[in-house]
Amino acid sequence: MPMPDFETLLYSLEDGIATITLNRPERLNAFTTRMMTDLISAFDHTDADDAVGAVVVTGAGRGFCAGADLSAGGATFDRDARREPERLAARVGGVERDGGGRVTLRIFDSLKPVIAAVNGPAVGVGVTMQLAMDIRMASTEARFGFVFARRGITPEAASSWFLPKLVGIPTALEWCYTGRVFPAQEALDKGLVRSLHAPDDLLPAARALAREIIDNTSPVSIALTRQMVWRMAGADHPMEAHRADSRAIQARGPSADAREGVMSFLEKRPPLYSGRVSKDLPDIWPHWRSRDFS
Fold first, then answer.
1. Model-level pTM?
2. Which of the four CATH numbers 3.40.50.2300, 3.30.720.10, 3.40.50.300, 3.90.226.10 does domain 9-213 have?
3. Which residues make Cβ contacts (< 8 Å) with residue 156, sequence separation at least 6?
4. Which of 134, 161, 165, 275 could lock 280 by a disulfide, CB 3.0 to 4.6 Å apart?
5. Which helix (H) or strand (E) holds 227?
6. Greatest extent of the chain over all pairs of C-alpha atoms, in Å
């Protein structure tokens, strides 16, 4: 597929790893409406490209994302005053959709595993956008902050759903109540990030993890697994998971990938999976309710 070109992102693909780099370094990669639409488009592209086996998201320069761009001053969060075309187009039933939430919900639906390589400060939407990513790895120089109450607003990007699932309700509330910016070590201790790395080692470590996934697993199985785990986080009974598991095993059991997975193990060789997410992904969600915003 042709390489996409974005105004606020850099995009590269190497050996199956797509790297999305937030690219407004002069503003510490502060989030804008344009960045929102670029990120949604980038994940549309990674899903559609069978050459992509995993996605790494990082930031250019010394920051990951400093949160919302505050250059509009006091009107920054006044959506009626700003009236940007992209925002107005997302207005449903008189309510304008939160831009960070549109990004996290798109990442939630990703068919490829997503690794955040948090290279520097990540506050506001800069941290909440990571919550829908599967694995967060951070530089020792990274800092995090759920600063919304200090700006007179509330958590966004569906973080009230994601954050307690990752770190528990007490920690989620403490971070949101205080709005303080905390160091990478605290993020590691509380389970927000998987591991800490020296700045120069962060991207190599993220790519090594992506490489382990790509080299050893079926892309179709990964796409299904990702959606099964994320969607079941909101299920009200394990029977929902049982239904999805049963449909998935029934669909994948006769596949060429399942045969290859067994034979490569028995023959003690690396697997060569032929299944493609773009054409071989079974629908195991006939009972899944609509998630349209209204």
1. 0.92
2. 3.90.226.10
3. 98, 100, 101, 125, 128, 148
4. 275
5. helix 219-232
6. 65
